[in-house]
Amino acid sequence: MTDQTQAAPVAESRVLSTPRLLGIGVFLLVVFVLVPVFISLSGRWDFYYTLTSVALLSVAAAGVWLTFYIGRINIGQGAYALMGGYVSAVLMTQYGVSFWLTLPLAGIFCAVVSVGIGLPILRLRGVYFAMVTLVLTEVARLTALALPITNGAKGITSIPLPGELSIFGLTIIPDFATLANPKLAFYLMAALLMVLTYLVLWRIVNSRLGHLCRSLQQNEELSASIGVNTAMLRVLAYAISSFFGGLAGAIFVAISQSIYPSSFVVQDSVNFMLYCFLGGLGYVFGPMLGTLLLYFGWDLLSIAKQYQLLIYSGALIALMLILPNGVLSLLDKKGGSK
Amino acid sequence: MNAILQVKNVTKRYGGLTANNDISFDVAPQEILSVIGPNGAGKSTLFKQIAGFVTPTTGEVIYKGTKISGLPPHKVARLGVVRTFQETTIFKSMTVRENVIVSHHLRSKASLLGFFFGSSQAKADEAEFGKSADDIIDFLGLQAIRDEMASNLPQGHLRALGMAIGLATHPEIILLDEPFAGMNHDETMRMVALVRRLRDERGLTVLLVEHDMPAVMKISDRIVCINFGEKIAEGTPAEIQANPRVIEAYLGSEDAAIGM
Amino acid sequence: MEQILANGLYLGAQYALIALGLTLIFSLMNVLNFAHGQMYVFGGFVTYTVVAQFGLPFIVGLIASAVVLAVMGALIEKFLFRPVIRRSKRDESTMLLAAGIAFFLDAVILLLFGEKQRGVPKIVNGVFNWDMRLIMPYDRILIAALAVGLIVGFILFMQYSRTGRAMRALAQDRMAAQLMGVDVDRYSMIGFAMGAMLAGLVGGLLVTITGINLGMGGPTSIKAFLMIMIGGAGVISGAIAGGFILGMMESVGLTLLAAYGDVTYLMIFITLMIFLAIRPQGLMGKPWG
User: Fold this and answer.
1) CA distance A123 to chain C (A)
2) Among A31, A87, A150, B100, whose Cα sits 20 to 30 Å from the Cα of A319?
3) From the CA of A4, how many Å to the nearest CA of chain C?
4) How far is CA C49 from CA C40, C45, C67, C119, in A?
5) Do B14 and B140 sit in the same domain of this protein?
6) What is the value of pTM for the model shown?
7) Is residue B166 assigned to a domain?
C-alpha cells in the first residue's frame, strides 16, 4: 500500500495522461524558467547555490531510494559521492581530462566498484546491511586520507571549472570560466541532471524492472523461486545507485573546485537516507521532495542561529510522529495515485 | 520407472545435526507424491534442497537427467522445478493480478535493457503475461479478487494465490509446502480437487509436504515417509497405512494420528 | 606486548559496555539506535557538570549520569519510538527517528554544554609501572575495573532478575513473550532506559580520562555498530566479544601500524567487510534468511 504510485496497472503507467503531462510541463517550467527569473528579480543569487545543491543531492538520494526499492537500507551513498568526486578531480588535475568526460567516468567507476563491494554485502539484510554501508562511508573517508593519489588530508584544490564542450568544432557548452554567471550555468546543469535522473528512475520503476525490484523488496525467497536472478538484480540496482552517487559527487567537486576526505562524511550518507524517508519510500519523486524540504529548510533555519539544529531536528522528529510514512503519504489518504 | 526427478542419497548436515540422512526416491512424470513425517523429521529441508535453496552436504538431485542440486533457486526454477511456500508465498503490496504477472518473469524474452526502454519484445511479453495471468486466475477461480491488494486477502485465497504464482512460472514440477495447513474440511477437499486438476488439466508433476493425513491419503499416488531425517517407507497410500514403521513413527510422536 | 594487551583490555571493557547498551535496544525493539553515541556524550557531560561544576564526588556524577540517561531513554521510548513503531508501515522508519533524535541530542548538548572539550580532574593519581614493560595510570585501571564490574553486573541482572529474564524472553520471541504474559510495552521501555543508561555510564567513566566533546557522538555510534556487527547484533555475548575484539584490534593496530600513518581503522573496516562477507551474522549471531 506504500506503493500506490507503482501499483497502477502496467498498461496505464505507459500512457502519459494529460494532467500528468501538464504536471511535468509545469515542473520543467518552474525549474528552468521561473526559478532563474525569480532569482534575477529578487537578487537572491545565493539561492542558486542552495538549489544547485538540492538538485545534486537529490540525484544522489535517487540512488539511495533505488536501493530502498529493492529492500535495502543504504547509508553509504556518501562513499560513492566522495569516490566520484575524487575520480573527477584526479582525472582533471593530474591527467588533464575534460570535466565532461570525467563526469560519466566518475559514475562508471563508482558503479564498477559498487559491483565488487555489493556482491558480498548485498547478501546482508535489514540493519546489517545498513550498518555495513554506514561503515563504508567511513572506509571511503579513511582511504582518501591514506592514499597518495588523493593527497591525504590536504585534499585536491584549485580544480579548473568545466571547460568547453564541443563536437566537430560546434560549441555545445561554453567554457564555464568565460561565463558571466557560472552559478546559473551550474544550476542549469544540476537541474538537467536531476530531471534526467528522475526520468530514468521513473522509467525503471514503471517498467517490468521496477516490478521485479518490488518483488525483491517484498519477498526475496519467493522472487528467487519464480526465477528472478535476485543476486544479479540487487547488484544492478546498487550499481545504478552508486552511479548516481558518483555523478553527483563529481559535479559538487566542479562547483567547489576542491575536494577533501571530509567532503562527504557519514552525516551526508545519513542525510541521503533521511531525504528518502522524509519524501516517502513509496514514491519515485519522494527523494526529490525530501531533499528540497530538508535542505531548504535547513538553509532557511540559519536565521535561528544557535537554535538551528534544535528546530531542524525537532521538526524532523515531529514529522516522523505525524507522518511516519513520509510526506507524500498525505496523498494516500485522498486515495490519489500521484 | 522413467523418473522425471530423482533424489539420490541426499544428506544434509548442519554442524553436528543431521537433517537428512541418505534419502533416495524417484518421482514419475505427472505423479502426485507426498512427503510425510512427524514435525522436525526433515521434510522442509528436503524440499529446500530440491528447489535449490539449500545445497546437500552429499548426494544429488537429478531432474530430467541433469543435476540440479547446487544450482541457485532461480536456475532451478528456470529448468521447471518451482516451490511455493508455506505462509508468505506472496508479494504483499501488489494486487493479485500483479502478483501473477510479475511471476511470469522467467518466461520473459526481453532483456533488462529492453524492459527499461520498453522495446517491442518487452511490450509483447507484457501483453502475453497479462493474458496468461488472467488464464491462471480464471483456472483457480480467483476472478472476484483480481485487483484486490494481496495483503488484504483471507488465508484461503492467499494459498490459492501462492499456487497461482507457482503456476505462472509454468513449471513441470511444483513443490507445495503444506497446502492444506490450517484449512477446514471443506476447504481441504476443494484444495485436493484443485491439486488434482493441476495434474490432470495442466499436466504437472506435484510434490507435496503435508501433515493432514486424510488429505494426503486421498490425493497421493505415492507417499514417502521420513522420520529423524531418514526415509523409513515408500509406497502407495495403502502400503504406507499398513507399514508398521510408519505407524510407530506417528504413535511415537505427539503429532496428529495417522488418518486411518 | 604486555602493554598492547593491557591497552586492548582497557579499551575493550569500555567498548563492550557501549555495545551492550546498543545491542540490548536492538534485540528488544529491532531499533538501530543512531543516537547511542550522543547518549554517551550526554552522560559524559552530566558527570562533568556534577563533578567539575558542582564539586560533588565522582561517584555522585556517575549515578547522576545513569539516572538522567535512564529517564531520557524511557521517555524517548514511550513518547517517540512506541508511537512511530505502531503507526509506521516499515521497520526502517525507526531509523529516521533515531537519526532525528541523534541530531536533536547534538543540538541539546550544544545549547546546554557548549562545544568545548570538557574534562574532570583525575580521580586517582599515580601510574602503575611494572618494570617499564607495562605502564598504566591508576585511574585507567580503576575505570577499566569499574567497566568490567558493570558488565558482570549487567550479565547477572539479565540472567537472574525477573526483569532481566522477561527482557530476554522478549528479545528471543516477541510474540511468544506476549503470549506468556510479558508486558511488552513495559519491558521495551525498561530495556531502552537500560541501554541509554549504559551509554551514559560509559560517558561518565571516560570523562575522567579522555574528556568529552560534542563531536564524539557520531564516531562512537559507528564504533558501537562495528562491535555489534563483529559479535552479532542482538546477542549479549556478541556485544562483549565485539567490544573486546575491537579494543584489541585498535590497540594492536595503533602500535604496529603507527609507522604507516593513520590506517588502523581503515584496516579494521576492511577486515570487518571481509569477515562479514564470509560470516554475515557475526561471531555469535543467529543465522537468518
Assistant:
1) 8
2) A31
3) 13
4) 14, 6, 14, 10
5) no
6) 0.83
7) no
